[in-house]
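Thread: S-adenosylmethionine complex, take 2
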Amino acid sequence: MDTDSPEELLSEIRERRLGVWGVLQIAAGTGVAVYAMWAGILMPGFRKVPLRLQVPYLPASRAQVRNVMTLLHGRSGNVADLGSGDGRIVLEAYKKGFSPAVGYELNPWLVRLANFHAWRAGHYGKVSYLREDLWKVDLSRCKNVTVFLAPSVLTLLQDKLLAELPDDALVVAGRFPFPDWTPSQVEGEGVDRAWGYNMQTLRQHHKQEVQKEPSQP
Ligand SMILES: C[S@@+](CC[C@H](N)C(=O)[O-])C[C@H]1O[C@@H](n2cnc3c(N)ncnc32)[C@H](O)[C@@H]1O
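Output below.
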């Protein structure tokens, strides 16, 4: 192909039909771009987390934050948000008097963003955002725990919380309830709803259920 000018070359490219190879190249290029976006911006730090436990970032709505705070009302002490995203729950809880207020988040971009939000609100250094895998955090001293995670993950998280949290802990779930737990309180409607779970009540309920089960011969 002899082309005399860039314009001629361009029109030649425009006129040529895409072959199978061309389509494959575009598909592969798009795939790589989407993966790079997923791995580099949306889910960095998740390589060691099994796929079924990976939860993408979606910030809580204002109404959701308000409902979570309503359920925490009257309580005090520390608070931990598991998967803290841009830090909004932790920051709001700190403003309501909870301290230490800690967020655990794997995505380093979100940890930076959360710190920026804390700085902008004048609370930088007073709240903590730790780049840690929530599955590896020791929760045995947590009095107030908040979560906004996918339902598939909540099933497994129930076991961790039951095994580690003290009796006087309260767990507040936003958007999705824990599948096997009965909440002691519910606040809000629709996608903004939040559920409060009292650990002592849950354990008593759990014990009664086990006692009710017929014993094996
Ligand atoms: C649905 S967002 C909720 C963000 C925030 N809690 C809120 O209510 O706005 C879930 C967050 O959990 C984080 N996450 C998911 N799995 C995690 C893990 N294993 N350890 C730490 N953070 C995790 C995600 O990166 C994401 O930011």
